[in-house]
């Protein structure tokens, strides 16, 4: 099973669709359940908040991978607690995705928390039985 946080956002929604279309079993996590009356086959939607990692434990239990989509304004989310919850759930691969880390102001105060998530993922990349990645778009050159 693959867990996708931020599953109703601009990146999460198409990612969930693509994973489901590829035949993956997906758990789509967002703070609120989607209003769509057309659920995707193979997708389980769960309401959970990254700020409450204890609430994520049951969602992550038995997951093979976690696509961790982080948005701006998530300063209240502790990256270490989220990664601890993933580890205790048996997650073997964490992929951190955020287009806002690169942006045009990577050193701006509004991006510092996103950079902290990336740092936490990188620091844990050497842990046994867990692989981690951080993906972000390359800055465009005009």
What is the fold's blueprint, element by element?
Elements: E1 2-5, H1 12-21, E2 26-30, E3 43-47, H2 53-60, E4 65-69, H3 79-88, E5 93-97, H4 112-123, E6 131-135
What does this structure look like?
With 142 residues, this protein is an alpha/beta fold. It has four helices and six strands. The protein has helices spanning 12-21, 53-60, 79-88, 112-123; strands at 2-5, 26-30, 43-47, 65-69, 93-97, 131-135. Strands 3-2-1-4-5-6 form a six-stranded parallel beta sheet, with helices on both faces. Helix 4 links the parallel strand 5 (93-97) and strand 6 (131-135). Helix 2 packs parallel to helix 3 (79-88).
How would you sum up this structure in a few lines?
This protein has helices at about 10-20, 55-60, 80-90, 110-125; strands at about 1-5, 25-30, 45, 65-70, 95, 130-135. It is α/β, with parallel strands linked by helices and about 140 residues long. Strands 3-2-1-4-5-6 form a six-stranded parallel β-sheet, sandwiched between helices.
């Amino acid at each position: 099973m693959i867990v996708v946080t931020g599953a109703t956002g601009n990146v999460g929604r198409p990612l969930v669709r693509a994973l489901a279309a590829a035949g993956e079993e997906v758990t789509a996590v967002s703070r609120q359940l989607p209003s769509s009356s057309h659920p995707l086959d193979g997708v389980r939607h769960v309401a959970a908040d990254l700020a409450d990692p204890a609430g994520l434990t049951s969602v992550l239990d038995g997951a093979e991978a976690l696509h961790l989509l982080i948005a701006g304004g998530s300063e209240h989310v502790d990256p270490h607690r989220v990664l601890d919850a993933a580890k205790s759930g048996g997650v073997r691969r964490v992929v951190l995705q955020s287009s806002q880390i690169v942006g045009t102001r990577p050193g701006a105060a509004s991006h510092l928390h996103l950079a902290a998530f990336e740092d936490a993922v990188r620091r844990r990349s050497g842990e046994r039985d867990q692989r981690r990645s951080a993906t972000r778009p390359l800055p465009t050159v005009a």
